[in-house]
Structure formats: C-alpha cells, structure tokens
## 1
Amino acid sequence: MTIPLPAPPDLIYLDHAATAPLCEAAEAAVRDGLRLFGNPSSRHDAGQSAHDALVEARGQVAALLGCTLEEVVFTGGGSEAINLALQGTFADRQGHLVTTAIEHSAVLECAAALSRRGVDVTVIGPEPSGHVDPARIAAALRPDTVLVSVMHANNETGAVQPVEEITELAHAAGALVHIDAVQTAGKLPIDGLGADFVSVSAHKFGGPKGIGALRLSEPHTLEPLVYGGGQESGRRAGTENMLGILGMAAAAAYATEHLDNELAGAATRRLRKRLVDGLSVLGGVRLNADYPVVPETVSVSFDGIRGDTLADVLDAQGICVSTGSACHAGQDSPSHVLTAMGVSVEQAKATVRLSFGHSTTTADIDTAVAATVAAVDRLRRVSGTAVSGAS
Amino acid sequence: MPRFSPTVVDHFTNPRNIGQLAGANVRAFVGNPVCGDQILLTAHVSDGIVADLKFQAFGCSASLAVASLLTTVLKGEPVNLAGTLDADRIEELTGGLAPDQRHVAALAADVAHRLAANFRSGVSDDDPITCAS
C-alpha cells in the first residue's frame, strides 16, 4: 500500500467539523504510546505500565467531560458512544425515545433501528434558525419517555441547541438525557452538562480517529454493545485501544486548556466575523443558522451556484471545505439538516460549510474568503445568474 | 488518487468562453432532469464553420468542465463535427472521468448533437439556461 505524502504545508484546511488535524500533543502521546505494549489488564510490570498510562489518560478525558474516572467509557468513536447510549438504554425495555430531525445519522439511524424493535420514536423538527425549541421537546414528553437525545451543536450549521433547558424538562418528566457533544468537545465547555450520557469523539478535537468516549453518569448503567473481558467496567469489552486513548487524552488536555483561554475564544470569534464579513461582500449569500452557534462552523449558501462545485474549485486551490456533513458528502440528496430547517432544496445544494480550528490563522481566512468570492463570482457568470446587492 | 483529471480541473477552475454570444444564430440547450446539470451553447456559425461559441452551465464541476472543453473543441471547426462527437470521445478529451462523472460526457455529447441538429434545421430558439436557484 502506498501512503500518499502529507498535505502540503500551504493547504488551508477549513473542514475541522469533519475532522481536526492531529494536535502536536496527541501525536507525541501516540508516538510515546508505541512503547507501551503491555496489556493494561495484565499483572506484570509491562501491563501495569500500560494500566497506569490508561488511568492517567482516563483522568484527562474525565476532566474534559467533567466527571469521575469511573464515568468515562472509552469507545471506538463518537458513533459507537451514541449507539451505546441509545441501544444500551433500550436494550432491555421498550418505551419512548425523543430526538430531533437535525441529529447526526448515528442518532437517527440508531433511532430507526430501535423503532424497528418496537421503541416508539418521536422526532422533533428544528426552527428555521437551526435550533430546537425546548417547548416542542416538552410537548413530546410522555410518561413512558425513557430517553431524550439531542445534539449540543449541529455538525452542519453549528447551531448550539438549548441542551440545558431540554435536560431540565426531560429530567422533570422522569426521562434520561443523552447529549451528542461530538461537535462541541474542545469548542464549548461540556463539563457542566447535566445530561446522563454525553458522547464525544477524539478526532473532532485534535485526537486520533477511531476513539471516543461516553460519559455515563452515576448511578446509571447501560447494557453493553460489546460483551467480552469486562474492560471499561464491563460496559465495553475488548482490550483497550491504548494508542487511541493516549492520543485522545492528550488532545483532551489541550482542549481543556484552550477552553480556559479567553483570549483564544475571542480570537475564534474574530475569525468567524472576518470570514462572514468577507463573504458578505457578495450578494445572494445566506447564513444557515442564527446565533447561538459554535463560532468555528459557518454554513453558508450562495445563490446561483452548487456547493459541491464551489468546494471542488476551492479544493483545486488547496482550500478544503465541505458541502455539509462529511458523512454525506458525495451524496446527491440535500442535507437532511437544512431541509428540516425549511431551507429549500436549491439553497441546500448551494451550501458549503467552512469550519476552522485552533491552527487556523487570519491569513488562512483572508485567502479562503478571496478565493471563495472569486469562485462564486465566476461560477455565477458560468451559470448566467445575476445576483445583485450584498446580503 | 485525484477525483478529477488535470484537464477537468483546468476547465472547471478556468472555464473558457463563458456567457451567451450576442448575435448567435444557433442555440442548443440540454438539461439532465436527474442530476440537474444544464448546458447552453450559443454559437455563430458562418459558412458551416463555428466562428464563435460560448457556453453557460449549471451543475457539477465535471459538467462545467466538459461544457468549457466542448467550446474549445468546436470553435473554428465545421459545425458538423459537433454531430459526430460521442460520449466516449468527450471522455477521452477530458483525460478520463470517474464512473460517477461519466454522465457529463453524455450530456456534452447531447448538447453538441443538438447544436448540429439545430443548425441543420434552422432552429435558434432553444430555451436559455434557467439556473436552479
């Protein structure tokens, strides 16, 4: 197998919502972890060295999640964490699940599978702003509602959901709450979330792919998806993915530090403003979510063009953006998130997502804005679309 | 492996002969109802030769590229050449298309054939492109 050369240093990567580059600390932790070959469950020194590293790593992830070490369940990524929360909750019971139409497919497909098993599922649509109205969640709650699953921020639009209000409403009704925090870990504080289950994925905040975690708050328990040797306190069997866990822990420590840095937060908001202001010199530009949003994610539609074509033109110039969820890129169907918000199919297909991260510079944003403005103008001339007036 | 050949990238990043030709005496428009790709050619044909030719297109990158490529192939050539181009020849000219892009070669062949047919039959009022948004 030939491994392609690394991305050129002048690549402008604005697709952090799909995956973030491995941060230096995570890379170093993975490299150091290569020497820790012992099985953390073994009694001998080699095993205990791995065990000690695992405990330390668990503590770093627990700090990001705001929980005890015992409440962290390492999984094979965000999707598995979500599946563990949902399937684990309904493994031995029927009842009612409430979720929303803008969830990641890991939630929606899991909900569909549960529905086929007899779980009653209610899917709440978002408002045109991209946010879910807690009152609509409250109206859907029933005496047999077992679980409410809502994302902290949407992966396509960045719209931050009122998860605390939803959590209070659900708890008052006697329901459990799962928060999909895959898009907010490292961007917004998640350590204070009052939910019973919180899922995260390492590669969204600078860790490796294939490793995630579920915060399973005491005293709740879940039926595991994977049975075996009793690792993760019996909640997820299988010898621990040590390299992934060590990389995730280092990224979590870096993310926790970043979250405490108010200057970094202000810089992120300035980058968003610079990006949005720069694109708005074009007419026919629409942002697809109102505040509150995670500053790092900008979903924007340009009248008269196709988002996938714009993304290809930018890619040819070394600028990586997405047409929406990376999981759905390449599909012809419009975004289920945008269409659920009431966005027309045409506008949904005219959408790109630009998402940045800690490594993004002002120069990156300026270059991307200039290239996007030029590309949109050219594509509109190609399609013969006349658009006037800045939005 | 890159998703597009260098020729395709060249044409969708730097499309040639954009627009509608003022004073065109032949127009040809085709649209793919499934994917929504649309191409409009406007040409001035004099003595059977495509003296000038412009295009408008709405669609995926590859469809824009083949439309642009088509104008460079046909400009200065006998209009009858347009009627002889088939999807295989257009794909060859692009330097290769991925399986999910090959429909654009057929689209380009269709609009080229229509240009030749419209010239032969004296039709010059094909609908102009109406972009989807």
## 2
Amino acid sequence: MPDTELIQDGERQMRICNACRYCEGYCAVFPAMEQRRVFTKADLTYLANLCFDCRDCYYACQYAPPHEFGVNIPKLMAELRADTYREFTWPAILSGLFKRNLLAASAITAASIVIILGLVLAFQGSDVLLGIHVGEGAFYRVVPFVAMTVPPSLVVLYGLTVFIIGATRFWRDTQGPISAMVDLPALWRATKDAFGLAYMKGGGAGCNYPAESFSRARMWHHHLVFYGFLLDLAATTIAAFYDHFLGWQAPYPYFSAPVVLGTAGGVGLIIGTAGLLYLKWKSDRAPADASMLNMDVAFLLLLFLTSFTGLGLLALRETAAMGTLLVIHLGFVAGLFITAPYGKFAHVVYRYAALVRYSIEQRRVV
Amino acid sequence: MIGGSEPFDVLVVGGGNAALCAAITARRAGASVLLLESAPKDFRGGNSRHTRDIRYMHRAATEYVTGAYDEEEFWQDLLGVTGGATNERLARLTIRDSECLGDWMPANGVRWQKPLRGTLHLTRSNLFMLGGGKAMVNGYYDTAAKLGVEIAYETEVRELKMSAGEFASAMASRNGASNEYAAKALVVASGGFEANIPWLKEYWGDVAENFIIRGTPHNQGGMLKELLRHGAKPEGDPRGCHAVALDARAPKFDGGIVTRLDSPPFGIVVNKQLTRFYDEGEDFWPKRYAIWGKLIAEQPDQIAYSIVDAKALPHFMPSVFPPVQAASIPELAGALGIDPMLLGAAVNEFNQAVRPGKFDPGALDDCRTEGLVPPKSHWARPIDTPPYYGYPLRPGITFTYLGVTVNEQAQVIMQNDAPAKNVFAAGEVMAGNILGRGYLAGFGLTIGSVFGRIAGREAARCAGY
C-alpha cells in the first residue's frame, strides 16, 4: 500500500478505535491513542512502535474483518512499523534492504561466508583450513587476530551509527527535541517495560499467538532470544577483556566464563528462535503483514544459524572440522551484524524510543 | 452427532451471553448440550459482542470496582429507569444472583479490566470486560468447547415442535438443508426481534424503514414468534424498543458502540424543516440519549441534524465519522444538504435566546435560553465560533422489549399461566419481565447472565441432572 493510503487508513482505523475504546486495558497503544483526536503520520508512527503485535485487540474487535469497518490493528501497525524502519534508516539508498529482507540477508550471509573462505584459502592455504589446531590462539591460526577483530568492530560501529541516526530521526519526527529523551525516570520505566516484555502479556493472559487462544509461549521464547543474546554479548565482552587486558587467548576452557555464558546464551537463542519460528509458521496470517513476517524470519534464521554454528564450533574445536566451522560461523556472524541495521533488529531501537516517549506522556497525564 | 439421530439432553438456541451461560451451566451439571448459533463464527455472540460492561451487586470495592453497590441501591436504580415496569420478584432475584458473577465469569473464561481514568462513570457499579463483549464471548465459547458443549454455527432454528407447553424437537436449517434436533429440554436465548424490519413495521409503520439497527442482523425474532405461536404469554410493549440518536452514516446493522453521537447537549438539534423539537440540555446526556431515538423517529423522514461550533468539540467523545465542517452556518447547511436560510434563522433565533451563564459540562449549569420554544435548559452557548460542525442523526435501535413471560426457574409461562414443562428462556427474549422500560447501563448482560445460568441449571435438572 502506498504510504499516504496507509496513513489515511491508519487514521480511519484509529478514529474507530477512539470512539470504541474497548481495548484500552490491553496495552500501551490504546491509552496513548486516547490522548489524541487527530492522527498524523507522526502519531501513527509512534503508536505503531508501541504495538508488540500481541493480537489480543484483533480477536476482541467487534469491527475486525469481515465486518465492513475492517479494523485490523496488528496488521496496520506492522505495516506502519515496516515503513518506520525504511523511512528512518540511513543511508536512504539502502532502505530497499528491508523489502525482501530474507533474500537480502541470505545473499549477504552467503557472500560473507564465501569471502571469508576465499581470504583464508588465499592467505592461509587449505592445509591451515583443514588442519587440527589446539591450545591458546588456535582460532587465530586460521583467521588472524587482526582479521577477526578489526572488521567486526567496524561493522558494529557502523550499525550503531545507523541506529543512532534512526533513533534521532524517529524522536525528532514523533516527539521533538532530543534533549527530552534525557529523562531518567522515563528511561528507567521504558527499560523495565522492555526487559520484562510488559506488553507481550496482553491484558494479563498473554498473546493471542500463534492463534486465537491466549498463550505466553511467544513471550517466553522471546525472553530466551533476548537474554540469550545478552549472555552471548557478555561472553564476548569477557573474552575481549581476557584477550586485551589479561593476555589470555581463545579458545577458553569449557568451564571458563566466556564458554559457560556463551553456551547458555547459544542454547537460549537456539530454543528461543526455533520456538518463535515455529510460532510464526503456525500463526494466523490475517492480522500479519507479509513484509514484516519476512523480516522476522530472516532475523530469526540468522540468529538461529549463528548460534547453531557457534555451538558446533565449540563441540568440534579440537578436530579437523574446526577451520571450516570457524569460517562458516564467522560468515553467519558477519551476515547477522551487517544486516542488523537493515532488518528486524531495528525493532529494538524504535520500540524502546516509543516506550520512553510513552512513559513521559503518561506521567504528564496523571 | 450434530444433525444426527442421538437426542441431546439440552438444546440451547442462540449464541450470545445468555445462551453461553445456559450451555456452560447445563454442561457442568452433567447434561449433554447442543448450542445452535444462527450467525457464522466471525459474527457469533449476538448483541453480546457489542457490550462493554456488566452491572452487578457487590458489598465492597475490589480490584475491579471502585466501591460497594448493594441490593437496595441497585433496586432503586432499576425502579428509577423503569418507572415500576418491572416484576419485583424476578428483579430482586436477578440483583441478588448477580453477586456471584464477579467470580463465576472469570472462572468461565472472562477477564476483567481494572478501572482506568476514563470518560465512563460506571466504575463503581459495573465490571468492565477486558477487551469488551466479543472477548467475553470468545472466552465463553472456549470454555464451552472445552467442557464438551456441541456448537453449530450458521444453523438457524426455523420451527419448534411443541404441544401443550412441552418441547419435542427443533427444525433447523444449515447450508440449505433442514435437520431435526430432539432434546429433553429447550433453552431459548436467541434475543429480540429488532433486526426484523417487517416485524417492526407492524408496530411503527414505514417509519421503521429508517431505523438503524445497532446490533446483529441475526436477531430476527424467529424463536420469539415460535414461542408465541405455541401459546407462550407475551410480556412487554410490542412497540417498545431502546432507541438512541445515531450518526445517520452508520451501517444499517452491527455498527455497535462507535456510531452513537454525544454532541446534542453542546449545540442544537434541528429536524428536516430546520426546527428545533426538544430541549437538548434537559439533563446529562447519559440520562437522555435513549429518548432521542424516539424523538428523531417522530420527525419527518426520521432525520435530524446536530449543529455545534468549534468550542463545543472538545466536550464530547470523538465520533467515528468526521463531522461535516464549514466556515459559516449557510455553508454548513449546504454541505449537509439542508436549507441555508432556514438553518441560519434557527441558529440566530437560538443565539439570541441564550442568557449569559457559567458553562460547566460537569454540572447542570445555568447556561440556558429565555423565551425559546422548546427551551434549552443547560449548556446553552451561542453557536458563533467557526468552524461549524454538523452531524446527521437517525434513530438507532439497540433492542426490543417484547418477550415471553418467565418464572423464577426461567420457565416460559403459557397463556393459561402454567409454566411450560421443559422450555426455558434467558436474555433479551425475556428481559422485558425485569426491564419493562428504559435502560440501565450493563443491565442487559446482568439479566442474560443470571437467567442464562438459571435456565441452564433448570434445563439440566429437567433432563435428569
């Protein structure tokens, strides 16, 4: 749907919701909506990023299709969020990556694997790739230290830059001065809501996900993914600390902090992403937006395969398969982080910004 | 089983709140239950899918209501709105029995919403369903299915086979085929007849063609007609219906809550001849909105126009349809398709009659007209601040009052005053026994829930449970 048509339809649906208000107990979207009488593009963008796609309102809606009013808030909000990601990203020319995201992510990941493999073969040779390497610095014998640390750091820095630009643009468009974001109580409440996935509980009974019955499955699997990711981040940080400050080089022993945290995180990510992929597969498509679903699948698959190859590498690190697995794993890591600013990872940024704004706004109301 | 030979213990006709309460209660008692809903699954639940809250008696505040609401206050409120058109025995039974609903409903799949700061002032007496009536109905259907109630959608009962107050079977059509369903007991919970325009025309004449039906198009009153044909004793004024002022652009059926319009007290309302016809500021709108349906029904072509100006707009709930807007009154008349000169004259006459006062939308203030017929008693301020807004209005029918007489066991009473042996009624089809006139917010669900549960219990007992 072209942008203006989507905005007009969003305005129409919000007007119906605002005259009904039966769903006000479900989540933050409706109390935020009730503060408004007109719905500009900026308002709709803000509301869309407050929506956690729990779908409780869709099944409760007396005006949901096939009713002639055709109110379908989860679908509308998903479409608006997809628009948000494209509109606020940088540089604009790459916003096309959000469309057909699964294809883009697959191509970028495949290319990463091929390039890393090519570089290892060219500079290290096949003997090194297929050899057995054990002991401290084993990984660096296949992919040298500089190659393993400098490009990823640049990719992460680039991604952070894109997200900061996106968050700034989003905030300016929907809220106003950046200084308003520096609001500690609001940041604290938004952080609590985000870490607790407050709005994946619907009105308390859970999401109508994957279908009409209430379930907490989506929330728990999302928790596994989120906290799994954080554990892996912690493992990587500790490993970097060991390496740079203590001079201990990977691989680390099985019962060292990086390996224990990394393994726990990896297992969480595998179960969480597999569960979410299953739920997506089973989910009702009526309240869904196809392009958002495509982004979800791309991101979940990348997370799953990155974790899976990481754990495989851990299991077989003392065999001849180590070199090949390392190349594949690094390829997935590269794919994950290169595509991060141009895929579903973006939801973290915009949702958080929307939650901060919500807590500022609600405080004003009380 | 459905459409098969095996008779059920209890047959429930209808698929809204009362029907589901009856089906769940009968099934919990041990009876086998078949529920026939005439609507498709997406539109199941009759008018219950448009409800928001339920009034119930309670002795103290809870997490979900802000204070106590006892039997006497409840009864006085009911007496107030009905002006005595109620059966006190059944009414008090309903009120007392409603006390257990606060627990019974969540135990059967309904979720409550905590009171929010909002525009509704019912948070002391009424419980609000999280997500509203459709969410409630979804919860009940889930529970009923888990308990083993057989449910058939798009199955409309056309004929009841009864003799001397004893039910034998029901003939129902589904996908064009006709099936016979036998059962030991029957619960009729299939609503009123407000969606049956030809039937309404019997009492209202052609005026009824211009009625908008706020609820389900499936309330055709077929079961009510069948029960009356078999000699059930009618109850309630056949012409009686709950009629409110609706936005004329509302869909003919199923527009629900969003098409109501709360603007009249903040401006003037004129008919097609551009004449005011009633005091728009007589009392608070929640106490008056339900007489406006009938008032508009009495105007030529059953249409009226609410006219307000820019300063009125923030004082009422936003409507689902944007108002017709113009920079001047004649321009507004043009956009509404009414005579600009006459509307200008009506607004002028009104403006000149307005006496100065202190405007207060939260009180019966002293902003009123002098020398105007009919007067506007409160909230009268000159309509002089552009832009001007107009809404076309039509009568919107919520429900009808005509039903069948029942006793305290929800048994249908026959013309000879004897109860039917195995025929029970619950919900809108018998609500006229208790609510003979007027309306009390959330009380339709109370009657349906209490009598649904009684009907389910008694029908199961009648079938040997």
